[in-house]
Amino acid sequence: MIRDIQFGLKLLWKDRGYAATAILTLGICLGVNAAVFTIVHSVLLKPLPVPDSARIVLMSNQYPKAEGRTGLSISSSVPDYYDRLRDMTVFEDQAMYTSTTLIVNVNDAPELVDGLQGTPSLFRLLKVSPVLGRIFDESEGQSDNDLKVILSYGLWQQLYGGKNDIIGKQLRMGARFRTIVGVMPPDFQFGGSGRRFYVPLTFSDQQKSDDSRHSNGWTNIGRLKPVATIEQAQQQVNALNAANLELFPEYKSFLNGAGFYTRVDRLQDVMVRSVRNTLYLLWGGAAFVLLIGTVNITNLTLARCNGRMKELSTRLAIGASRPQVARQLMFEGLLLTLAGALGGILTAFGMLRAVETIGLNQLPRANEIQIDFTVIGATLAVAVAIGALIGLVALAHLFKVNLTTVLVEDGRTVTSGRKAKTVRRVLVVAQVGFAFILLLGSVLLVASFRNLLAVDPGFKPNGVITAGVYMGSVNYPNDSAVRSFTSRLLDSIRNIPGVLHAGGTTTLPFSGRSNNVIVPEGYRMRNGESAVSPYRITITPGYLEAMGVPLLRGRLFDEHDSETGPAVIIIDEELAQKFWPGADPIGKRAYVPDTPQDLTGPNDHTKWLTVVGVVGTIRLEDLAQRSTAGAYYFPTAQDVQRGFSLAIKTTGDPTDTIRALRARIKELDRTMLLSFVRTMDEYTALSLNQRRTTMLLATGFAIVSLFLSAIGIYGVLSFLVTQRFREIGIRIALGSPSLGIFALVLREGALLVAGGLVVGLIGTAWLDQVLQNQIYGLRTLDSVVTAIVITILGTIALAACWLPARRAMRVDPVTVLNRQ
Hints:
By secondary structure, the protein is of the alpha+beta class. It is built from 26 helices and 21 strands.
């Protein structure tokens, strides 16, 4: 074996042009696949980093027919949690959790830190033990005993330098001190990346009451018993929902109209649901790149084998057995592909570093993305498979060698058989087809991205700076204090030079959503009818002006919309058309139901809201999605919020404005922090991050595939020209013009390209639905885009045909015929 390896290395060094081309091709193709597989494996395939994670499921209430609700929910209500604890027998344990943010002094400076609030059962369910201290006990799920905290490993290191005596110490978090009871392991991560502490989640009597049914805002998970299945969990939760409908008949009309059901999914599947199709699409694109590269190497190997016939025949003639030569050929293929695999793994490391700059850190489980032994093993396995294929191609030639025929040729060109030529043509046709699919996909994504950039979001992001503020209960103990500070803060910001408008909101575009049912006066929901659930947004005066949202009717909020003034709302054009089509909504009234019973009609406790203005519709979720139910706005004075996002319209340098903003806030409250300071243009860019990453990667795949396809076409035509030198020489000797010879070769290339385009069109039609889900404002086989792709691919393919055709024109018939 050592001799075979040594001899194989010598042969590859001797034929280093072939070896370098094959290794470079494999390095690129395997590198692309290793990088994408690393992402797919880390995000989609690898189990969550907790024991038996496949048994952890999420139960979420869904309302698919409720107008205004888009996508799948992931939340449940508190009464649902207690019902499921009582009646569902398929679970070992259940837990509820939600995200939270608190101010913590980090390195003697206040910092907003993301954490998780969970019921004491959460860590028991996850079966993860702390490296220091303990997990929460059941008593700490009570509101008078919940001032405890478990730190992440990173926060423990940052705050206390890894000291072991911190258990029982007090840590100020927000307005209160909490007792540290534990520290989690360094590799523990749950509830999203960046969670750095965990505190007990408690519920009030109101949240537990039946009036809070379908007030969803928490995530409910359960760990299945070893013998239980998801199907059994789904059956039990369906039976529980059916029983509750009979127990609370006042909910029936609303829930039936909204199509209510509870969905049971593996938690891991839910976490990656938004990116699954995109990542699988990219993985498919990377596989196409590998297929194209493999076709190229196969064609190169076919050409090399044809040139090695005399060498192989000589070795057989002087005593080598066919199995010995076969083993040697297999080793050559494996050496080649293993070298390519090493280059591919190094390429993958570089690609992942590059992809981080275009949004990799926005993916779920992004902190877990790394090349591990699974990725390396898979890459080596693919390389071995390709090496075996290369060896088999060579063996196919070896076992059909006729020693007498080959040796009698005495150095003259050995022509390939018709089957070999057909195989090479078929491979190039497949290669062009794969390249067409990749190129069409990338051009569609680019065109789709341009369409999204041209979408009118309903506001004007240019010159708008955003930042988050939060008013804690220590410095602002009541609603009056919050209102007073909000007013003083906005007045101070408006006095900054260059600031045109300033306001605050609970929901910036592209930063999340909050839907809530609203009912217009005179509306009676009929059986089977869906409630309307628009976006609910609380804003200060000046916010809509800062965002450039147009006023269509009525007025905007001002200082008269105070806590003592009439209860008012502003609605957008979408909701106005939904509730009062063709009528002027100014002065009309609506109410927000407090309980499902309120959906049947107003009562003595109904709080009426008067419409005072109609504004343009904003795309709040993302540029590709327009709400079907619109939005309504409350003034903050009548719906007090301790935390909101500032929106500041400025004509000056954003950096100077941000510096002045920080100074004004310090003047008013030195303990207050600004969070998520960025421009609205940056928010818009972040909302497109996933699409941008997909587009850039797909474009990279398409460029590589075009390059490899051009090399493949050039290689096949060059080989065919070489094999037909005698025929071409005879044609020229008999008077065929040079242009005729040129057209002969060009026609061969054109037929290969045309066949590839047909294969590509068929493949694209087959993948229509997969591609359609990733594009906006286009069809998969859009005529303009398809024409552009055919033109690009055709031009590059014909350029690859040009050099072999030129070479054929220059054949000297005298030299060729004398040699033959």
